[in-house]
Amino acid sequence: MSSSLRNFLITRIFLTIPMIWILITMVFFVMRVLPGDPIRSQLGPKVSEEQANAIRERLGLNRPLYVQYFDFLWKMVTLDFGTALTQGERPIIDELGEKLPATIELTIPAMAFTAIFGIASGAYAAKNRKKPIDYGLRLFSIAVYSIPIFFMGLLFQIIFSVRIPILPLAGRMDTLMMTNFQPITHFYILDSILQGNWSAFWSCISHLILPSLTLGLALTGVFIRLTRVNMIEMLQADFITAGRARGLPEPRLVYKHALRNTFIPILTLIGLQFAILLAGAVLTETTFSWPGMGRYLVDRIELRDYTAVQATIGVFAFFVAIISLAMDFLYAFVDPRIRY
Amino acid sequence: MNSDEKTLVQVRNLSVTYHTRLGPVSAVNDISFDINRSEILGLVGESGCGKSTLGKALMRMIMPPGEISGGSILFNGKDVMQFDQKRLRDFRGRQISMIFQDPMTSLNPVQRVDEHVIEAIQVHEEKPDKEDVISRVKALIERLGIQERRLRDYPHQLSGGMRQRVMIGLGLVLNADLIIADEATTSLDVIVEAMLVDQLREIREEFGVALLMITHNIALVAEIADRIAVMYAGKIVELGDIKEIFDNPLHPYTRGLLRSVPSIRLDDREELFKMSGEPPNLTHPPSGCRFHPRCPEAMPICSRIGPGMDEVSPGRWVHCWLYQDHPQKDRSTIKVNA
Ligand SMILES: Nc1ncnc2c1ncn2[C@@H]1O[C@H](COP(=O)(O)OP(=O)(O)O)[C@@H](O)[C@H]1O
Ligand SMILES: [Mg+2]
Fold this sequence. Notes:
The complex is a heterodimer of chains A (340) and B (338).
Chain A lengths: L2 H31 L4 H6 L5 H11 L5 H13 L14 H36 L4 H15 L2 H15 L11 H5 L8 H7 L3 H38 L2 H8 L4 H38 L5 H10 L3 H29 L1 H4 L1
Chain B lengths: L6 E14 L2 E14 L3 E5 L6 H8 L7 E10 L2 E2 L5 H10 L1 E4 L13 H12 L5 H14 L16 H13 L5 E5 L7 H18 L2 E6 L2 H7 L2 E6 L2 E7 H6 L4 H8 L50 E4 L2 E3 L20
Parallel strand pairs in B: 3-8, 3-9, 6-7, 7-8
Antiparallel strand pairs in B: 1-2, 1-4, 4-5, 9-10, 10-12, 11-12
Helix pairs in contact in B: 5-6
């Protein structure tokens, strides 16, 4: 690894710290500027002002804003997320420990589907440029890109759960099965394998299909388009012509030489799309009642649960930063011009 | 132009047309010539006259919107126009190969040097012996003056000259009979260029490979070629032994070219090929002889009927009415350029 690359990566790591700081600061203040507070939004007007103040006192919400802010910052630095302000006031770390695995279980297959299907069909469209399949795939990419996630989800639910009832409508697992299922890691698929509980396993898989397909398809459009455009450019590159001139077979030129070079811009896209993937996860989880980070965030925003929202968005930001950092490392790995 | 043992390539009435929005561009127009075994044939002409198109056509590498619109190419007596895709792939690499202008971009940036060479062998030879392949690659690379440790380098770690040598190596590794070098030295600096030219000459001696040197630098051709073909607006206008052409250019275009080179060894490329008038638009080429609007010796017939390619002395071909007779020919010249 060259020293300039090392410096670049170190700088990148240090840049992510102020990035996350700015984000959580914004969330901290925006949440408090919004009308409503955790007590009133949960308990409504039934509680008296004295009772409400007593709760505020207990939760530390009556302290001056700057005191709350610095307290919050310090806790973030020490990775102490505190407890939620609503819904039983459980430690945030326990709540996220249940919600995060659900979101990861949803996003990994979605991302895998997007990357594999998107890149493969983008490359195929580029190879068959201006043929019907190319126009078809382009139309498809525009369609999945522009259809709102909740609408696509709803459509899938109507088709595959209501009209042709082959897949479950919502949730992570059959409700009946849930009653005697003891999650360990909260990755339900992993848990059911660990326990050798195959009916739970298949239930998880069947519940996962529609939400991950919805989320995956929503992101596929961008991948198809970006892969296609870069492949078309790459297929006109001199080294492709030169390879053809020494008799390399066409599939090798397309899927080995050109595609491998196309991975370089695609990796950047994966890094960028990750943030959009999380946004998409929020919508997908809401549509499919998937008990992950996204639904948790939406619920807690409505309840004005400041600490829960701050922690959730902080974790999202952390993941986006980590992924884009990982992409920079991968970038250097794929492109020898950066490595040497 | 009789076919015999020493003829490697026979091109007859070859035409290439690009179908563009502005209409068909006739980039190669009814060209016939031969390439002999182990010879160095220089192909010169100003940029845009169709040199690269001709080179690519010999490999059947014209891509849409272009098309070989007529003619035939015999390579080792085989009709290249009849080759199917599989045969073409075999032909490219094993019999003919091409080196391009920009050494920066003609190697795959994410593939190491040795991977390029080994891939070329693996694709073309059935069950190559691994040890044998590696030793061949090493020997070849060393022969080209590249250190063995460079084999594990990526293209961007090599200099432009070294990359072109790798490209030459890729052409030689399968014992191709013809290497087309399309402006292969143009982007290199003068000293590296001179070295590469020397090397090409040595390689011809050693491997018996024929070279088609495409260039707009006539001084370079003078250094290396056995014969030259002068191209103008999609036509070869003069073809023959290098010495004969330099001593006694027949076509007015060739004369102009040589006059614009004060000394053959001049390397100031900017000064080459300055000639009055504009290069023609190939979408609407001039009628008759395509050079007539710029020709100082144009005659009335030149704007009406194109001349044929005529062998004025053995091995010396000219495409000009000055050396051919026609019932309508009238010697009075018309003044086109001031
Ligand atoms: N892909 C293409 N599409 C359309 N026209 C082309 C294409 N390639 C070359 N041409 C045209 O063909 C003519 C010859 O080009 P080229 O063979 O590249 O000339 P040279 O190599 O002598 O500079 C030019 O007029 C050029 O504009
Ligand atoms: Mg050219």
